[in-house]
Specification:
The chain has eleven helices and 13 strands. The structure holds pyridoxal-5'-phosphate. Pyridoxal-5'-phosphate (PLP) binds next to helix 3 and helix 4. Belongs to the DegT/DnrJ/EryC1 family.
Length: 368
């Protein structure tokens, strides 16, 4: 039997009727851009994320780009970003013309190491972008403290951690302006591209709503040079349906992770996820590490188990960032994670015997 890395079969079945109803209602309303479903979703997601304002946008990358733009970050500025993030966080910095400054994560949690931030701050630094990687909340209290001390903005990349907390406070509600993604595979995923900005700043929220819509607050009157970065109305309708299920699906992810933790303990050189004190994890990904990563991935693949690597090449070694002139060895922790990490299947609908079967194959791999 095959076990794909990701399957929507179970969650799709749960919501199919409501999704089709939402589409029919959207279709019949004949109002296809920025309509009542978008407004409703922004309200519902604000309630879920415990923030004052949500502005739906086209995708997660656009959300991060817009967030930096809203804070007037641009050429000549530096933005601190983890050295092991997904490329989109770095691209957003490039889009506004600022320079990414990489700071290493903790090798335990894979999240930005607060102890390494201060030494990266210069007179050009404007913002810190913590990424709640794999679904675990960063140590936000420490990060906010440093930002206050140096008068920096904080822009959270909350694409992977909807519903995670640090000291009981939700990710996406700490920073000045934060971005999240509703890419289909994310914990709250649409059926296409979608994203949002979350902020407690009403002025910024107002500007964001204008900037995502050609820079126009009033139809055909343009205050600034804006973008078309609107959240698709049809996707907003789907997200309204799925948001109601998110807490339940998050619990399922956490339960699957606990099955893995139990079934995979004390096997070979495997390193299992570690959660920082006072942080919670919503397991967008369940990531293990081993020196034999490539061999283990192939072994699992040959036995029908889908896995992925998040991510095989850290941003500083990407061809796209050759101009930053980094080389192998410059960010050894990010490189170590890239060389040893492996993401196992985790999606609502996986059963305990699926996890036990995966664990049995992994044990076999180490015993051969
Ligand atoms: C998915 C993701 C993004 C980008 O979101 P898109 O909606 O795909 O543009 C940004 N940052 C992180 C950490 C992500 O996982």
């Amino acid at each position: 039997m095959q076990l794909p890395f990701l399957s929507f079969e179970s969650t799709n079945k749960e919501i199919k009727k409501e999704i089709l109803q939402s589409f029919e209602s959207f279709f019949d309303r004949e109002w296809y851009v920025l309509g009542e479903d978008t407004t409703h979703f922004e309200k519902q997601y604000a309630e879920f994320n415990k923030v004052k304002n949500v502005i739906g946008v086209s995708n997660g990358l656009d959300a991060l780009h817009l967030a930096l733009k809203l804070l007037n970050i641009g050429p000549g500025h530096e933005v601190i970003v983890p050295s092991n993030t997904f490329i989109a966080t770095v691209l957003a910095i490039s889009y506004v013309g600022a320079t990414p400054v990489f700071v290493e994560p903790r090798i335990t949690t894979y999240n930005l190491d607060p102890n390494k931030i201060e030494q990266a701050i210069t007179s050009k630094t404007r913002a810190i972008m913590p990424v709640h990687l794999y679904g675990q909340a960063c140590e936000m209290e420490q990060i906010m403290h440093i930002a206050e001390k140096y008068n920096l903005f904080v822009v959270e990349d909350n694409a992977q951690a909807q519903g995670a907390c640090y000291k009981g406070k939700l990710t996406g509600s700490w920073g000045n302006v934060n971005g999240t993604s509703f890419y289909p595979g994310k914990n709250l995923g649409a059926y296409g591209d979608a994203g949002a900005i979350t902020t407690n700043d009403a002025e910024i929220a107002k500007k964001a709503a204008i900037l995502r819509n050609y820079g126009s607050g009033r139809k055909y009157h343009n205050d600034v040079i804006g973008y078309n970065m609107r959240l698709d109305e049809c996707q907003a309708g789907f997200l309204n349906v799925k948001l109601k299920f998110l807490p339940k699906w998050t619990k399922q992810r956490q339960e699957i992770a606990s099955w893995y933790n139990e079934a995979l303990k004390n096997i070979g050189d495997l390193i299992l996820p570690i959660i920082a004190e006072e942080a919670s994890h919503v397991y967008h990904l369940y990531v293990i590490r081993t020196e034999k990563r490539n061999e283990l991935q192939q072994y699992l693949n040959e036995r029908g188990i889908g896995t992925l690597i998040h991510y095989p090449v850290p941003p500083h070694l990407q061809e796209a960032y050759i101009n930053l002139a980094f080389k192998k060895g410059d960010f050894p922790i990010a490189e170590e994670i890239a060389n040893t990490c492996l993401s196992l299947p985790i999606w609502p609908g996986l059963k305990k015997n699926d996890i036990d079967r995966i664990a049995a194959i992994i044990k076999l791999f180490y015993n051969e």
